[in-house]
Design a protein that fits this description.
Layout: E1 8-16, E2 22-25, E3 32-35, H1 43-49, E4 57-62, E5 76-80, E6 95-99, E7 105-113, E8 117-121, E9 131-141
Antiparallel strand pairs: 1-2, 1-3, 1-9, 4-9, 5-8, 6-7, 7-8
Length: 142
């Protein structure tokens, strides 16, 4: 059976950045699965997997526009340091999860800080990056 609309796709992957460094992978024995066409994985990866069959391996290059999007400079913001008085020690380059005043969960990376403010980046860490996946289809289910 081929990968296509509304099929459950079970696959292993390795994800490499532009420099060829491995940045993520499915662990052996624990493949990733999704329902094709529901938008649960990045569009460029899903599109390139269509028509693949169990046992097939493919290298897929995903441009930023078809991955996590382009970086949005408006998502880099300065916030008062006092908003972070709660507990975690902040470190430049580290990613954190927090809540807005409305209670929404947000993920961000600290990009700079001083005594009064913290610069946070709300872009996805892979936004603006070209991604290279090595994908092996394990199974395709109805």
């Amino acid at each position: 059976m081929k990968v296509g609309p509304f099929k459950t796709v079970v696959f292993h992957y390795q994800l490499f950045n532009e420099e060829g460094e491995l940045i993520d992978s499915s662990s052996e024995g624990h493949p990733f699965s999704f329902v094709f066409g529901e938008g649960s994985i990045i569009p460029g990866l899903e599109r390139e997997m269509e028509g693949m069959e169990p046992g097939e391996n493919k290298e897929i290059v995903v441009k930023p526009e078809d991955g996590y999007g382009l970086r949005n400079p408006n998502l880099v913001q300065q916030v008062p340091r006092e908003l972070f008085s709660g507990g975690a020690e902040l470190e430049v380059g580290m990613s954190y999860t927090g809540r807005t005043e409305a209670g929404n969960v947000v993920n961000f990376t600290v990009t700079n800080m001083d005594e009064e403010s913290v610069e946070i980046d709300l872009n996805h860490p892979l936004a603006g990056k070209t991604l290279r996946f090595n994908v092996t289809i394990e199974d395709v289910l109805d």
